[in-house]
Amino acid sequence: MENSKKLRGWLDEMALPHPLVIAGPCSAETEKQVLQIAHDLKDTDVNFYRAGIWKPRTRPGNFEGVGAIGLRWLQQVKKETGLKTATEVANRTHVELALEHDVDLLWIGARSTVSPFIVQEIADALKGTDKIVLVKNPVNPDLSLWLGAVERLHSADIEKLGVIHRGFSTYEKTKYRNIPEWQLAIELQTRFPDLPLINDPSHITGKRDMIFDVSQTALDLNFDGLMIETHCDPEKAWSDAAQQVTPKRLVQIMEDLKIRKETDEEAEYKNDLNNLRAQIDIIDNQLIDILGKRMQVSDGIGLLKKQRNVAVLQTNRWNAILGKMILEGEAKGLSEEFVLKMFKAIHQESINHQEKIINS
Hints:
Helices cover 51% and strands 10% of the residues. By secondary structure, it is α/β, with parallel strands linked by helices. The chain folds into 2 domains: 4-256, TIM Barrel; 267-359, Chorismate mutase (Chorismate Mutase Domain, subunit A, Up-down Bundle), CATH 1.20.59.10. Helix 4 links the parallel strand 3 (84-89) and strand 4 (105-108).
């Protein structure tokens, strides 16, 4: 994307004294509910009031949003509180209705980002708009697909762009609803540092008691803002009840979050940081070297198995290794989740090496 520095112009113009905050209910349920939450948020750090108008559900039969009538409620929110409004759009009709009701910020959801056809339809409908448009990461960890969606919008002369990191689906059971895969967001930041990056801890965690920790991690990684689902009575929410917080809790979260300020001017800090980073660089090189040697051993095992016509996967051996490494990792202060993910990746690479030899 050329002239990427222009992409964050809309955010810089806001000159916020704190990270950008987008908050409001997962779903607009009733006019009373929408307005009550808005009034509870109007004198807080919230910059945009979000509410789902159309709610694509994984399976039919669940509440799928109130539809266009909810846009009138958002108009009333702006009139009564002065809050700017935001909602998700998934097709041309959604876009046209949202623009007709003067919604200030539109975002493309994870299920839509997966399809270039849908993204292109939305980009065509938004062509040249001065509204802010954010793109959630696709449900699967695919950086090219995510950036491709942004590029389609940028090609449609939409300049006020940004992305939302909401985590990625996985078949594995973890403590998260959607695993963060922070490295993917970091890589996006590295490639396009001027593209505003918002974190959605509600969808990453799926649990309200984890929202603070994920939000703090995002701010530590220099994310530009947060999108946090907020409801006046979360337990009775019509959708995603477990991940919504009360307006009071949102205010407390924002007060407790620590904003890390850059201090590059401090010579001692820079020297210490550079020293530690140099140590990490050395260790990283050692890790690559050790992994390379491990795969050479795997190649030798593959040759033996080929000679004896033995299957590559030996389940008992693998389970024994995994159990031992989890215990070893815990003794070194490594979480079980990290050790599992790391050794599963190493094991898969080892299998790939052995299969290549056996099938050659």
